[in-house]
Amino acid sequence: MATSLLRVAPPEELLRPLAVPERLLLGPGPSNVPRRIQAAGGRQLLGHMHPEVLQVMDEIKAGIQYAFQTRNRLTLAISGSGHCAMEAALFNLLEQGDTVLVAVNGIWGQRAADIARRLGANVCELLKPPGKYFTPQDIEQGLVQHKPLVLFITHGESSTGVLQPLEGLGELCHRHGCLLLVDAVASLGGAPIFMDQQEIDVLYSGSQKVLNAPPGSAPISFSERAREKLLRRKTKPPSFYLDMGWLANYWGCDGEPRRYHHTAPINSFFSLREGLAMLAELGLESSWERHRANCTQLCQGLTDMGLELFVEEEKARLPTITTVRVPEGYDWKDITAFLMDNHGMEIAGGLGPTVGKVLRIGLMGCNSTSGNVARVLGALRDALKRCHRSRL
Ligand code: PMP
Question: Least crowded by CB within 10 Å, which of 8, 118, 248, 272?
């Protein structure tokens, strides 16, 4: 009898069925995926150069232009999560020695600065305490002092729950010869943003928050000014995968015949297309209003329970993700574990500078409902009764 050459047996765990419980995802993302978007992602695969897939990509591009409020030609979805879009923006905009000013008031500025340093850029940081936002005066001082080519700022700071006002920043940057790069991963569709009117040069987001699609594709767009900077590069971007020249061609943004660049995550694109379609059907204004109203209701309920919101100024609160201080006498991990175990519900602890200090509650896209506000408030009331350190 022939003896097997295999020394590693088929893993037992793979011989059992896939286990995926039902869960209400009210953390800072991902948010739940509605059936329609799940069904789109489960459709039969097509080839990545088939005309029907290229057509879906064109539809995604139009959906992103609507969601971003832009007519930029160079608009597409990166094959990767929000971090991948952040890298695509920085890898393509910056060359070694370029000065970039990074507005840091939470983890996303810290990460952008880290990525830019890896590129050999000259990274200057503009600092604000977590929970605060930057004023145009703060920004102007930084632009005058550091003379950057690019300013990075986060619209929806999901680690702190801050919504950064963007009015006037684009114009300010342009007056100082600088491009404006904005991270809207956590805010797109949940808070107003107008890429063209606000003169934003590069804007990116993610699929798994308000758009309610699975993670893995990330909308991004470059203004004409930003495109010109790409064309003036002396060196190629350090990543082939994220080279906007190649991606522009694959996405049909350069008027040339489309060439194979990489095998796109086609089923993720089907899901993203449906997420964008649902946003288009609802309408941006209705979506912004829905997020605002449910966030207000949540904040009211939290303060009625005696909890303290982390972001003091109401207008600076991100409508998609609310941060609330961990109350005295509690450990955040007990509360999040209690909600998961007893209510099948995810909320999150802090991230980066807010670790141990806050709980983060996300109400994004189809998860932003008054029913979910009531559910999370009820579950938290229950947790506060059961999780006090003196009871454990
Ligand atoms: N920026 C912000 C503001 C985010 O909230 C996130 C995700 N939490 C990211 C970037 C990174 O996105 P991803 O986890 O999809 O890579």
Answer: 8
Q: So what's the architecture of 35-280 in CATH?
A: 3-Layer(aba) Sandwich (3.40)
- Helix, strand, or coil (residue 328): coil
Phi, psi (rounded to 5 degrees) for 318 = -70, 125
- Joined tokens for residue 33: 């995926």
360 annotated as belonging to a binding site for a ligand:
yes
Task: Name the residue of 185, 212, 318, 351 to mutate for ligand 1: max ligand atoms within 8 A of Cβ.
Answer: 185
Domain spans in the chain, listed from the N-terminal domain onward: 24-30+283-386, 35-280
Fold for 24-30+283-386, please state it. Answer: Aspartate Aminotransferase, domain 1 (3.90.1150)
DSSP class of residue 123 equals E
Give CA–CA dist 125/100, Å, rounded.
8
- DSSP sequence for 362-375: E--GGG--HHHHHH
Ligand 1 centroid from CA 329, angstroms: 30
CA of residue 245 relative to chain centroid, distance: 23
pLDDT digit string, tens, across residues 114-164: 999 999 999 999 999 999 999 999 999 999 999 999 999 999 999 999 999
